[in-house]
């Protein structure tokens, strides 16, 4: 119930404007968001790289409503790709299509993404396209399929929670795609997504195994397993070992600020780990989805609201 409420609130931007003025919120946001600028994220990624892990950068923002906003986000991503190359970082951009204008004009959005993909190709970097709510799944996959023909280094995301995902995965395996498997962070109706978490976890395990099967590997499928769920990660590791899939053929992906202890432990155990680091001022939707995933984060926020830390801004 709490998760559903927080996810429902995550699309009410005016609440975000109010929260922005509350120091306790801003402090908690900083646990999940590197800072306002691309440099703040790239500084974090330099430290992540120094500890043997790869990075991904997300410029926070979604559902822009004008072509100018979409162009501005595109320009930021182009600069991010260049800054990654200039600083010699092991990192890639991970972006949302509605940030690059999918709601405004699908054609303009495709042009914007192609521009970022072109910069990525020139820099020898993969580009990852995030998956948003189920209202966007088909459009995202269609755009991805078209882009993949000319930019095969582009990767996409599937959500284990969605009932349609096994069929989507077959489509993507057939293309030899690179894909991230995540559980799914959006509020969805029960006919579209599994309402019970145990079913989502089981669906995730089945998808994880599918990508490690010989025919998928023979087609060049590359898997990013995005989860902080230790049991699932162990299952991925065991399946890959049993099938003889080398650690270069997949990676574990985690979010900045979540299970920091696990990042380093997995890396030391020989798995490839990528940490996704977001930056920017438009943190509200991202932050509310992180609260919805773990009610303890909300308790932390409320405790700080009623008992502000000494010297708080
Ligand atoms: P689960 O929710 O079962 O959590 C397992 C454990 O992780 C918890 O017990 C807790 O210890 C820790 N944990 C999880 N979330 C936490 C939080 N918010 N705060 C503190 N601890 C937490 N979704 C999507 O719809 N589209 C996308 O493109 C992406 N992209 C993406 C990239 C990366 C790198 C990651 C890691 C995740 C995503 N997601 C996503 C989000 C994903 O769908 C999912 O909501 C979260 O990863 C939480 O689910 P877990 O798999 O971690 O498992």
Compose a concise summary of this entry.
About 55% of the residues lie in helices and about 15% in strands.
- Helix/strand class: alpha/beta
Beta strand count: 8
Strand content: 5-15%
What compounds sit in this structure? dihydroflavine-adenine dinucleotide
* H/E series: HHHHEHEHEHEHEHHEHEHEHH
Q: Strand order within the widest sheet?
A: 1-2-3-4-5-6-7-8
The pLDDT mean sits at: 92
Low-pLDDT ranges = 308-313
Please estimate the helix content: 40-55%
Most strands sheet = 8 strands, parallel, barrel
**Rg over CA atoms:** 19 Å
Any idea what the shape is?
globular
What is the overall number of helices? 14
Chart the SSEs and their pairings.
Layout: H1 2-9, H2 13-19, H3 23-32, H4 38-50, E1 54-59, H5 67-86, E2 91-95, H6 106-123, E3 127-129, H7 137-150, E4 154-159, H8 165-175, E5 178-182, H9 197-211, H10 214-218, E6 222-226, H11 230-243, E7 250-255, H12 260-268, E8 273-279, H13 284-293, H14 295-306
Parallel strand pairs: 1-2, 1-8, 2-3, 3-4, 4-5, 5-6, 6-7, 7-8
Helix pairs in contact: 1-13, 3-14, 5-6, 9-11, 13-14
The structure holds dihydroflavine-adenine dinucleotide.
